[in-house]
Amino acid sequence: MKPLLFLLAALCLGLPAVAQQKPNVILICADDLGYGDLSCYGATKIHTPNLDRLASTGLRLTNGHSTSATCTPSRYAMMTGQYPWRRKGTRILPGDAALIVPTDKKTLPGVFKQAGYQTAIVGKWHLGLGEKVEKDWNQDIKPGPNEVGFDYSFIFPATADRVPTVFLENHSVVALDAKDPIAVDYKNKVGNDPTGKEHPELLKMKSSPGQGHDNTIVNGIGRIGYMSGGKMARWADEELSYTFLARAQDFISRNRKTPFFLYLALTEPHVPRVPATMFKDKSGLGARGDAILQLDWVVGEVIKELEAQGIAKNTLVIFTSDNGPVLDDGYQDEAVSLLNGHTPAGPLRGGKYSALEGGTRMPFILNWPGKIKPGVSDALLSQVDLLRSLAGLLKQPLLKQEAGDSEDQMRAFLGTDKKGRSELVLQGGALSVTKDGWKYIPANKGAGYDALVGIETGNSEKAQLYNLVSDVAEKDNLAEKYPEKVKELEALLDKIKNK
Ligand code: NG6
Ligand code: CA
């Protein structure tokens, strides 16, 4: 039909002349990926072509942050639009924790659902499941992701190094054999499975001294926490990524005709790093580098799926990570010895667990063909802003007190505003605040260096003030030189804390 005829026919039939399909949104979150881990962020020892392409055809943020330097709090903020430290119990959760995301408040997936989207999470959850710690893993477990706004969920409960090492689809454990029920305990050993502590000779990857990871052995790897049963349901680490990818592709193809929101929470390069055969020894940087290659590949496959379904143009892809990098986080996997001069945090100081920039300044890429002009932006942005920004994009109402720390920064996320936030609180061990290129970390008594993981924590008995514009590596503490600035930022931090 000629366009004019179609228009006339559409008008006569009362149909909208142009079918305006709402954009799909895919939020991909890596786990422990550092600011310097991708070649588009300056890495030279590793090449990440798929993410580089996403960045070169989209917007690459240089000052985009997670709220926190560990997983649970960062993801809590992404889901709720609230700083995690406002609420108790949002630190790194064990694998049997109860759900910490409120079921009666606005959430990121909830906003999409309200806008008529199909919503899904595929990947790492780590925000707790069920009402209590004590729960029966052999029954339906509620509440969880499906109760906070996801129509579909395919997750693992916590981290790859924590039991139970199983997938849950919606409310139940995948491939569970009723004759081999699962039991989980984080205090006492359950069942007869060997532990890493009792039987280190059974391990295919040694745990690092002093870092735990020596409880139940699953797939030759000692985990945090004890489990028994569920032998058929246990995952093979080598297949984690394929499994998540297949579920993501399936969700995308099923929903190619309806607007959808997919939160794809990938596990790389978190420990234990056990990439698929295809990536083994391919990076030359050991298992951590191989895991990054795998991550890059998965992202490439997701984009291919969008293209194959003909919906790439109408899809906003957001890529980021939940916290900064760590090399030795519990296993002796040669991440340190084979580093080969790679700098996971790029020019930044600190890493995972740290109040320094390496803890929270993240790779952060937004790609929306035709809508986002390719470029780089130094705007100050946080993952906590995604909720209100995307709600604005979807024209969904959000009261001021809902998602109270989330700002509508959609223009900055699309690259048309280059400033972004005026201030942001960051959570390492200590809370710090950043404003107009300055960063203030209050004096505190915590140790300055975490020897187990080999990371500077950013703690110091002296107040710290850095000028991030001229000194992104936070080398030059200017607190004594600019006491007024320190006072101003101290008051600002207090004000935000007490909001
Ligand atoms: C820590 C674990 C670390 C990792 C982290 C969670 C120890 C000594 N270390 O407690 O291995 O699992 O928790 O990482 O147990 S996160 O990215 O999910 O926050
Ligand atoms: Ca993490």
UniProtKB/TrEMBL annotation:
To which protein family does this belong? Belongs to the sulfatase family.
Query: Could you say which residues form the signal peptide?
Result: 1-19
Domain Sulfatase N-terminal positions: 23-394
Give the UniProt keywords, A-Z. Hydrolase, Signal
Name it.
Arylsulfatase A-like enzyme
Coiled-coil residue spans: none
Amino-acid biosynthesis recorded as keyword: no
Q: Which Pfam families match?
A: Sulfatase
Single Gene Ontology MF annotation: hydrolase activity
